[in-house]
Write a structure and sequence with these properties.
Elements (H helix, E strand, L loop, with lengths): L10 E5 L28 H13 L4 E5 L9 H9 L6 E6 L4 H10 L2 E7 L5 H8 L4 H13 L5 E7 L8 H10 L2 E7 L18 H6 L4 E6 L2 E5 L7 E4 L12 E4 L4 E3 L8 E2 L5 H13 L26
Parallel strand pairs: 1-2, 1-10, 2-3, 3-4, 4-5, 5-6, 6-9
Antiparallel strand pairs: 7-8, 8-9, 10-11, 11-12
The structure holds S-adenosylmethionine and iron/sulfur cluster (SF4).
Length: 316
């Protein structure tokens, strides 16, 4: 359905958990998060009912996210059931990739059409630093397993962090030369608590184009501006929520693991649907779509996102 500003809302991001097996410094605090009482998290049945309600209102694309969605024990079942909901044309998953060696095949069999894998550095020590606890080889194994499981068009999401990975832009671009993988650079967003990173760490996506002058524009893909290196098999994507917000094209709503609908990533508006019937969920979702603000306030590290949550508590 259309919102008040004539935007067609057809995409929902469903966070299935706030928990994660990594602790990325820009995403969540070092000690992880206060584990919410299990009873406050939506059950699998509630999640599926919410997907059915969303589909009734014209949501056709679903992205499963988290926290880390693959730490959720019933993730394959959630994906398989969501993919069968009438009206849902595509179920995708965003993951840090660590558990893909175990789960890529199962996700594929469950009908997950695409995977986005987050990866901020190709250096093992830097990977361990940025994730506080992770091993780069786990993600690399995950990417290989996903390719072998038949995921032909993988996307790697890389948060640009000045002084940390801006010297790796060309190394990431090289991946697109050798594999059918899109590498998408995302500007660091000043969330509720972005850990150790302040204004100096923020760099605009334009820096990628400065570093890769031979990349040519090809098309846009949702919120990403796409470029391609000559002879490459994959694209370079630029996602600039801070320097060039894309609110006018926003087509999405979000549902958190504790059952809160968020009309906008950067607003603190939340509408509870946990515990409701499907018809009640449909009504609340309609309200949420109508409550979608025209745009979010300007983001900066001086005036952080108004969302009041860290990214692992929303899902990106
Ligand atoms: N755990 C999964 C993962 O890392 O892909 C899914 C959840 S994670 C919150 C979703 C995306 O949000 C990831 O690509 C992550 O890099 C990104 N993200 C987290 N915090 C961010 C921030 N402060 N600014 C920009 N992107 C952020
Ligand atoms: Fe976990 Fe993803 Fe956040 Fe990293 S970005 S801490 S992998 S939820």
């Amino acid at each position: 359905m259309k919102d008040n500003f004539q935007r067609e809302i057809n995409y929902m991001r469903l966070s299935v958990t706030e928990l994660c097996n990594l602790r990325c410094r820009y995403c969540m605090p070092e000690d992880g998060i206060c584990k919410i009482d299990h009873g406050l998290i939506m059950t699998e049945d509630e999640m599926i009912t919410a997907v059915e309600a969303a589909a009734e209102l014209g949501i056709i694309k679903l992205r499963i996210t988290g926290g880390e969605p693959l730490v959720k024990k019933n993730i394959v079942s959630i994906c398989a059931r969501a993919a069968k909901v009438s009206g849902i044309q595509e179920v995708c998953v965003t993951t840090n990739g660590v558990l893909l060696p175990k789960l890529a095949k199962g996700l594929r069999a469950a009908g997950v059409a695409r995977l986005n894998i987050s990866l901020d550095t190709l250096d093992p020590d830097k990977f361990n630093y940025i994730t506080r606890i992770g091993k780069l080889s786990d993600v690399m194994d995950g990417i290989k397993t996903a390719l072998n499981a038949g995921y032909r068009k993988l996307k790697i999401n890389t948060v640009l962090i000045g002084g940390f990975n801006d010297n790796e832009i060309r190394d990431f671009a090289r991946i697109t030369m050798d594999y059918p993988i899109d590498v998408r650079f995302i500007e660091l967003m000043p969330m509720y608590d972005s850990g150790d990173f302040g204004p100096k760490a923020f760099i605009k996506c334009d820096k990628v184009l400065e570093m890769l002058p031979e990349a040519v524009p090809v098309e846009t893909d949702g919120v990403a501006r796409l470029y391609r290196m000559p002879g490459a098999k994959g694209n370079i994507g630029l996602i600039s929520p801070v320097s060039d917000h894309f609110c006018a094209e926003c087509n999405r709503i979000r549902l958190t693991a504790d059952g809160k609908l968020k009309p906008c990533l950067h607003s603190n508006q939340e509408i509870n649907i946990k515990g409701l019937t499907k018809d009640e969920m449909v009504r609340k979702m309609r309200e949420t779509i109508f409550a979608k603000p025209e745009r979010h306030a300007k983001l900066s590290f001086a005036s952080r996102s108004e969302s009041g949550r860290n990214m692992n508590e929303i899902g990106g």
